[in-house]
Amino acid sequence: MSDFAIVGKPNPRFDAVPKADGSLPYGEDQVPANALHCGLLYSPVPCGRIKRLDASDALRVPGVAAVLTAKDVPGKNEHYGSGYPPHASQPIFAKEEIRYTGDVLALVGAETREALDAAMAAIRVEIEAKEGVWTTRHTEPSAQERKVCDFEVKRGDAEAALAGADVVIERTYRTQLAEHAFLEPASGTSWIDADGVVTIRVGTQLIENYRAVAAVLGLPHSKVRVLGTFVGGGFGAKGVMTVEPYLALLTWKTKRPAVMVIGREHGIRSTMKKHPFEMRYRTGVNRDGKIVGVDADIVGDAGAYPHKTNLFLLGAMCIAAGPYEIENVRVRAHGYLTNNPITNAMRGVGSNQVCFAYESQIELAAQALGMDATELRRRNFIQKGGKLPTGQPIPHTPNLEGCLGSVLTALGPRPKARPGKRVGRGVAANITGYGRPFDAAEAAVHMENDGSAVVRVSAPDIGAGQGATLLSVAAEELGLGLGQVSIHLSDSATTPLSGITAGSRQTLMAGNSVRAAAGKIREGLLKGAGALLEAAAEDVRLGGGEAWVSSAPERRVKMNLVVAKAKELKQTLHCTEGLNLPPHVYADPQRYLGGLGGWSDYTFGVHATDVEVDPETGEVQVLRHVACHDVGRALNPVSVEGQFEGGAVMGIGYALHEEVTMQKGVCRSQSFHEYLIPTSSDIGEFQSIILECGEGEGPWGARGVGEPPCNNAPAAVALAVGDAVGTRLLDLPVTPERVARAAMAVRKNGHGKAA
Quick check: pTM over 0.85? Predict the structure, then answer.
């Protein structure tokens, strides 16, 4: 790391102070003058047919500017989605059929919030309610029609391996419907600029949604502009359109600016959720601790519309055997439509669900063998060049042994239980992918005459420091100080498009694009400096806004002079570069959505947790949690540590508290009173351990780190609770009720029964 001036250093982020003092504007801030307030009327039932929708009384409410429904959409009345018939892409407005309670019936624009509320109440709706489908376990004939994906992967002969195994563990695991629970509500503003372009300022993870908005309005892409703000949490839910089409429609129809905030109750009702999985696993192990076979069947609830359920079930299938080298594997993955909330991307995208299942299997197998579970893991950890069930080789060093040893050393001896309490320890290893085949991104870098630089890239900053990371990449490559580089993010009209900020992909995609563009400019700067210093370009060094010859560091020239000389020599000082990822090569690529199966690279890690459990009440207290991942290269260790902490805390909440409870398609969890997210008192002592093997697909060997820490934590916590009560808990979340029942069952039936 000594060769780097900026990379690998705990550099302060340029957005830190304005976030801390509250001056950084988010989606609903900076409201245009004369803006209309927007509100959405949602379906009161989860399944039915619209018989009557009458807005005439609402239009007579003083201060109401417009009430829009499906008939008022000038273009396509749909979000872009997967489009599996007969349930095509989610409509902007429900026209006839109601498929879930997040279906929008009408949009109201009014001068005041009071007029908005009165108009919403005045809309007359008649819906013929129907019995919906609430579970993927339905067996009626419609089940086949509701299937949105059906994948299978085979490696070796899983059935034969299981038949010959010394121990076979078979269990079924279930994970819950979970809410993204971002703290900043989905919000934004809109207006028509002087050139007639519909402009939307919004907190989003994907500014490329401007194309979908243009389709809704029936306009060319060039007539819609999305300005992305810093985002107060998204975790996947803001990767799809939230307020954008409604703001655009109201502004386009009324020619007035608009502002819209989807409140918490409506947000939980309408935004997408994490897929609930039901996972049946059979794991075969020999007495020497070798895992010889895995057979798994994964069923996911897609909710009311398909969106990208096929992609996430495919991803879960590819890594369903975990971070282990297993020669005989068969995995099937299926997704079904229901009348529950739509499920889509949420931090982990299938990885945390399957991690809970395969790590629980490891613990049960070790128990059956009388072997320490950490030793069982060590004997089966996948190595560089090892193959996943799809046959894809692991391109870089996983360093799982290093991660495992680090967390166990950090935890030290088991804590002693207080009177009436029990303590337990859980360890979970994982594999998480980053970078999808066919992915693409671009970024632009420009040198100014004074020697400073500007970076332009569309990547939204969703709180993980994407902007600061990309700025530091450019500064390192160009030999500038952080204060000499500025960055412009998330403007569909001016920044090269780099895709969604999700899937731990922006360091890989945008980071490599920025480095490539800056690298082309660096070549010209070295030639310009060489001419000034009368030295060969390869002997020139850049740093801190200066250039010098390696053998004579006392002779230095400022970057503004270097830029002037490079310009005189006709060198490139403005450059746009990109990255295009190839598809995976499979014998039968159509089985994997044409080569989309798996990721370009993988990040590995191990978490360990100590918990204290009250067996009478089921109350769980996390005492200590240690997170360790090999990140290849930590471009900014402070930002990486933040991702470790944030991801693990989210995973702990997923393990212990978080669940959207449903009653026949209706969300019973409508606020943070009912949907519990962890607070600082729920986390205990936390420690991050960053390992760096120097191997990864990102700049200078960096790996994606946004999602991996979220994926181990649920399994580690659940396994620790199971260790404390003496049985494995098979359903998430491990609520006090479930823990108390499990402890009671152990007292009644004896140790070792899975609950």
Answer: yes
